[in-house]
Amino acid sequence: MLFGSSLTSRFGLAVAVSASLLLAGCGAGDTARQATQSGTRLLAASVAAATPVAPGSIRMHFHRVQNDAAQWGVYSWDGPLHPSSAWITDRFMMTNSDGFGGYVDIPLAAGKSAIWYLVTDGNGTKNCGADQHADLNADVATNGQEIWMLEGDCTVYTSQPALSYGNLALANAHWLSATTLAWPGAPTSGTYKLFYAANGGLAPSAGGTVGLTGADGVFDLTAAALPDALRQKYPHLAGATGLRLADADAARVAALVSGQFALAQYDGGGNLVQVTSLQTAGLLDDLYAARAAQAQLGVSFDRRGLATFRVWAPTAKSVALNLYARADAATPATVPMTRDAASGVWSYASTDPQLANRAYYTYTVQVLSRWADNKIVTNTVTDPYSLSLSANSARSFAANLDSPQLKPAGWDDQRIPKLDAPTDIALYELHIRDFSASDATVPAAHRGKYLAFTDANSDGMRHLKSLQKAGMTHVHLLPSFDFASVNEKGCVTPAIPNAGADSTAQQAAVAAVADTDCFNWGYDPVHYDAPEGSYATDADDGAVRVREFRAMVQALHDTGLRVTMDVVYNHTSQSQQGPLSVLDRIVPTYYYRLGNDGHILNDSCCADTAQENAMMGKLMIDSVSLWARQYKVDSFRFDIMGFTPLDLLKRLQASVDQAAGRAIYLYGEAWNFGSVANDARFVQARQANMAGTGIGSFNDRMRDTVRGGGCCDSGQSLISQQGFINGVYTDPNALSTQTRDDALRLADLARVALSGTLRDYRFTDRFGSVRTNAQIDYFGQPAGFAANPAETINYVEAHDNQTLFDIDAYKLPQSTPLSDRVRVQTLGAAVNLLAQGIPFFHAGQEILRSKSLDRDSYNAGDWFNRLDYSYASNNFGVGLPMAGSNQDNWPLMSPILANPLIKPDTRAILAAKNAFEDFLAIRSDSTLFRLRTAQDVIDRLKFYNVGPDQVPGIVAMSIAGTQPGAPYPGARYKAVVVVFNVDKVAKSIAIPELKGRKLQLHRIQRNGSDDVVKASSFDAGSGTFAIPARTAAVFVQNAND
Fold it and tell me: What is this structure's pTM?
C-alpha cells in the first residue's frame, strides 16, 4: 500500500484510501455495522414542516441522539450533480434542521438511478461503516425525493422512522479501567448509571426514570475529570466526560465481564436522556493484560511431546477444545478448557503424546457479542495463534515447530548470509506466485509454490543468483502468511483470448474469475503465524506448508540472499461474525480500532486492528518473533506501519532481536492518515516520528521526484507531470507545461533523496540558499525526515501503482525510441542505487517489467502480473488493464499500449538487466554508496551545479573516501564523483573545484554492458565532465592518486 504522505495535501484522502488502491482483498462488508432497531424502544417524533424538496434533488435527513447532526455531512462520489471532490473536506453538510434532526438537499446528476455516499463527521467517523446507497425514484427529476437515516443504523428509510433513546448496537462510551469510564460529549451535569445483564437482553426503556430494562444489576457513577494518566494514554478522549465507579463496585467487575453492560444518562429531573453500549478494550487491558502478556498462547509442547492449548478469551462464558484426528475427520473429541481468572486465558493440557504434527483442532467459544445484537453466540473458531492449518483455514494444526518432522534436511545447520550493516541491504520485492507461475523451467508441481525456490537451475533462480552476485542482499516476499483471497482447494485458471494490445477482452476474462483464480497479493490476513496454504503443494496437510516454507527460506539463504517477510498486522480480512473472522469471534470488539460510536474503523479498507490494545500488540510481537526464530526470517516490512504505536514497534524490535539472536531489520509504510493521523490516539510509527529509531520508512520523496507527479494521479496528469528522469522541462511531452523552475525543484528533491533524505544534511538550493533537507519543501512537509541513512527505504517502483516502465510510457514523448526508454529505466535504478540509504526494487524493474499500465494489480491474475525470467517479454501491451481501477484512464491508455515503439524485445530487456546489475555492482564495490551514519554523509557528500544558475538536467555529487581524517572503511577510493545527465542530449559541466583530480570512469562502467556510458569523460585541466544523454556516469579517484 505504498501511496505516501503527500496525499492529504495534494489529492484528498478519499483518493488515497480507495478500496482498489489499498489492496482491497478483504472480506466484503465485514466491517459494516449491521446495527438494527432490535432491542430498542422507539419514541414518536415531532417533526416541524420543512420546505418542499426541489425537483431533481434528494433531501437526506439524519438524526443523532446528541442533536449534533449539523457537524455531520454527506460525502458522495456518484449521484450528485457535483460529486464530493476531496475526502473529507468536501461534504454536503447537514446545516438545515427540523424536528427529526439535520438535513441537506443535494442536486442530482441527470440519468442517475442511485446515489452512493457516506455520512461522516469532520474526523472521518462514518455513521455506517460501509458505503451506502439510496435508489432514486423514477420521478425524482420532477418531484424530488427524501430519505431518513438514524445514528448507527445502516438502513436507508424511505419514510420517516420513529426515534429512540439510543441504539445498543453502538458504543459511544469507553470503559478505560476498572474504576473509570469516559463518554465524549456527555454533559458533566448529567446523572449516570451502569446497567448489567449476565446473559444480555438490555433494552432502552420507553423513557421516564427506568433507563434500561432486563438488567441484573445497576451501578451508580459519579462524573469526574479523567485522571491524567488516562488522558495521556487516550489522547483522543482527553476532553470526554469522566465517570467513576465506586471502588467496591469496581472490585466486582472482573466477575461480570462475560455479560452485557450499557450506560444511561439522565437529566436533572431523573428522566432518561440517552443510552449506549461501551467500548471495553481499556477495561480488559486493565484487568488482564499484565498477566496475559506472560502467557504462551496457541499450542505448545513440553519435552515429553505433550501439548498444551491456550487461548485468551476473558469475556467468554465457556471455551472447549475440539480435537480431530485428520484434517477431514467428521467428529471431534471435545474437552472443556479451564479459565485462569488473573489472565483471562483458557487452557487444556493433553496427556496424549500422539497429537504433535498429526492432530487438527478448533475452539468452541460461548460469548456475548455486540456484533450479534448483544446476544450470546456459540462460535467454532480456529486458533488466532495457529502455527499451521488445514486447507482454507478450516482447522488449526497442532504443529511442533521444533520437531525434525517439520524441518527440511540441513535446516538447523544452514548459514545465514553475512550482513555487516543495515546500509549494505538491497531489497528485491517479489510475489511468490509471480516468481514461478509462468516459468517453464520449474517443475509443474512447483510453479507458483514455495518449492520453486528450491529449483536451483530454473530461470528464476538463476536470475536471483545473478542479482545476488551483483549485490542484491534480500528477497522481500509479499504476504506469505495465511490469507483469505485464494481458494486453496480449487482455484481456477482463466482462458485468456488472443486479442490486441489495447483490447478489453483479456481483462474481461481475468475479471470473470478474479475472485476464484489462484492469484492475489495476499494483504487480507486470516492467521498471522501460519504459512499460506495456496503456496504449498498440499494445503490440507498442515505439516507440508511448514516444511516447504522453510525449504524456500533455506534455498534463498543458500543462494546468498536473506529473506524479508511482508507482514500485515494493521487489519484482517474479516471481522465481527464473518466466517473467516477469528479474533472478533473470540473476544468481540477487543482486537479492532473502533470509531466514536463503536463501529470498526476501516481506514485501511479492511477491518483495522487496534495494535494499541495490549493483547493485539502482544500478538504482533509474538508473531514476528516466531517467524524470526522458527523460520529464520531476516527482516520484516510492515504494511501501513503508521497505524502502529511507535513504542510498540520499539518493543517489537528488541523482542525480535532477542528471539532471533541477531539483528533483525525492520521497515515499513510510515504514512500518516486515518483516525490515528497526527498522533491522534498514540504516537505513531510515521515518518515524522521515525528519526533515530533505526527503523526504515519508505521514501515517497524519491519516488515522486524520479517518476513525476504523485502515486495517485489520474487522467492527463499521468502524462503532464513529468519527473526527474523522464523529461521534465528537457524533453516535454505533448501535455507538459512544466518550466525550468519545475526542473530545478525536482533536482533539489533529487539531491535530498541522494543524501539519504536526512533531516540535517545541507546544500545550496535552487534559490541560492543553504538549507537542510528538512527545510526543502515537499508539498507542505519537510522533505528530509531521517536521522540516519538506514532509516530511508529508497524506491521508484513497488507492487502498488504503475511499474516504472509503465509510468515512463505515459510521460515520455510517444516518439521516444526504445533505446532511450531503456536508458530512462536505468536512470531510475541508478538514482536509487547511488543514493544514501537502502535501495528497494520491485521484482522485474531490472527487466523493464510492465503490467500493461495497471495501477493496482492486487487481483489482476497471473496475466497482468506475469514475470518472465526468460526475458522473452516484459508483459507490455497484453490488453487494457482491469476495469476496476483503470477504466477511467482507458482512453489515455489505448494509444500508448498500441504504440509499437514502446514494446521491448529481448535485446532491450537484457540491456536493462545488464545495466541494472552494473549499478548494483558499483554500489557493492564501495561503502561510499553505503555510508553508515548521518555524520558520514554530512562530512563526505557534496553537490555541484547548484543554485539559480545551475544547468538543468545535471545533478553532480562527490563522496570523499579519505577526507576528513583516515580512509573510510571499505571505501576503496580516495573519492567518487557521480554525474547524472537526465537530458535527451549530451551535456558538459565544468566543476572547477575538481580541477587536477585524477578521475576516471569506474572500471565496471568501462568494462560493462553499456557502450554509451563509455563515452563519458573528465578533463582534469578544466574540471569538465562530458556526459552522454540519459546517462549516470560514475568516476573514481583511486586511493593512491
Answer: 0.93
